[in-house]
Structure formats: C-alpha cells, structure tokens
Amino acid sequence: MITAFSLFLFAIGIFFFFTATVGLLRMPDFYCRMQATGKGDTMGAFLTVTALALYNLHYGFTLSAVLVSLKIMFIAVFIFVANPTATHAIAKAGMDCGFEPWTRERRAE
Q1: First-to-last CA distance in the chain?
Q2: How far apart are CA 25 and CA 8, in angstroms?
Q3: Which of 19, 51, 71, 88 could link 6 by a cystine bridge, Cβ 3.0 to 4.6 Å?
Q4: Which residues contact 21 (CB under 8 A, 6 or more apart)?
Q5: Is the CB of residue 45 less than 8 Å from the CB of residue 13?
Q6: How confident is the model at residue 88 (pLDDT cuts 50, 70, 90)?
Q7: pLDDT of 4-60, one tens digit each?
C-alpha cells in the first residue's frame, strides 16, 4: 500500500517537472518562464522527495527508517520554502537589471 502511494506521488512529481519544462520552452519571456518553472519545480521536487520518504518506510517502521524518512521530509520542507524564495530573488534581479516584461505591443516590433 505504501509502495503504491509513493509511486503515485512520484508520478505526479514527474508530471509537474514535465509541465515546468514545457512552460520553460513555451513561455514568451523571462518572467513567465520563471513563474512556470518556479511553481512546477517546487511541486515536482516536493512530491518526489515525499515519495522517497514514504518509500523508505516500505520495509517497516523501525526507528532508523522513521528517522531517515523524517530527515527526508525536512529536506522536502526546505525545498518547499527555498525554491519560491530563490525564484523571487532571481525575478527581482532580472527586474533590477532592466528586463522588460513581455507585452503584445512589444511582440509586434
């Protein structure tokens, strides 16, 4: 049961990574690409690492397995907090460097 649920979480995480990659390739400018990859990578990494923590409990709820899964979940929480912060910092740096947001008028030029 735990294996099936962890495989399900892993598949959803891979789906988010895939959609973030498609967003990176399809979006028109820097800011749209940052938004697509920031959200997709955060959810993809969080779900994938959570699946790894659950899969670690597959062989039993021993103390060492629970502690390792707890450490992995701390990593998942760190990723969940750090990725949006880093995305915001990179977008702010792009704004400070003078990258203009995409508009329909600018596209026609």
Answers
A1: 57
A2: 26
A3: 51
A4: 37, 40
A5: yes
A6: very high
A7: 999 999 999 999 999 999 999 999 889 999 999 999 999 999 999 999 999 999 888
pLDDT at 41: 94
Please compute the mean of the pLDDT values over residues 79-105 and round it to a whole number. Answer: 90
Domain span including residue 34: 2-108
Distance CA 58, CA 65 (A): 9
φ/ψ of 27, rounded to 5, equals: -75, 150
- The answer to whether residues 69 and 56 touch, using CB atoms and an 8 Å cutoff, is yes
Domains in the chain, number: 1
The label of the residue with tokens 């790894």 reads 52
Full-model pTM = 0.85
Q: Which amino acid is at 15?
A: F
Helix axes 30-56, 63-97, angle to 10 degrees: 180
Q: Are 94 and 33 in contact (CB under 8 A)?
A: no
**Placement of tokens 């008028």 in the chain:** 105
